[in-house]
Design brief:
Strand content: under 5%
Shape: globular
Distance between the termini: 29 Å
Structural class: mainly alpha
Order of helices and strands: HHHHHHHHHH
Largest sheet: none
């Protein structure tokens, strides 16, 4: 399934790291990207849990980043060449919103990782350590990416759907 969703995961993680960039150089950028990619991966697996779901989004396309750019005040088109912005068509708004929720709420992230890794061979919570148990360097590198106030406009777009997906008991967490 990851193979089918890899363009969506890559584009959505890239959007998050461009909208909320790392602070502190190349290592910080790599740590920030790793956290964004882990959050987006979990969100994408929750959003598209079956191979059929993944195939359908691959066929139809996820929708692009236009609304996310508008919500965050980013000017995506701002004179850029089409090849510089073509990746934005693979950004999934719901997945970005869910990833923002996971990045700003550690308990929700743990629940989501548990939900997508239970019974899945080869996927363990250890693979998502930077998301569920970030260390000091991770937090410093992704200070903007994990800031609840900054991510709130994106997280709030589809937070209710994420809580519904994880179960009715999770509504009390957020």
């Amino acid at each position: 399934m990851l193979t089918d969703l890899s363009p969506l995961i890559a584009a959505t993680a890239q959007w998050l790291t461009r909208a909320y960039p790392a602070t502190g150089g190349a290592l910080a950028a790599a740590l920030c990207e790793a956290q964004a990619r882990q959050a987006v991966t979990v969100a994408a697996w929750l959003r598209y849990p079956t191979p059929t779901d993944a195939a359908l989004v691959t066929l139809a396309g996820p929708g692009g980043s236009a609304r996310l750019d508008w919500v965050t005040g980013a000017d995506a088109a701002g004179g850029a060449e089409p090849e510089d912005t073509a990746w934005r068509t693979w950004v999934d708004e719901v997945v970005a919103s869910w990833a923002a929720c996971l990045l700003t709420d550690p308990e929700l992230a743990r629940l989501a990782v548990t939900a997508v890794t239970e019974g899945a061979p080869g996927s363990t919570p250890v693979e998502f350590r930077r998301l569920i148990e970030p260390d000091v360097r991770d937090r410093q590198a992704a200070a903007l990416l994990r800031h609840p106030d900054l991510l709130a406009p994106v997280a709030e777009l589809h937070q209710d759907h994420l809580l519904d997906r994880l179960g009715p008991d999770q509504a009390l967490i957020a």
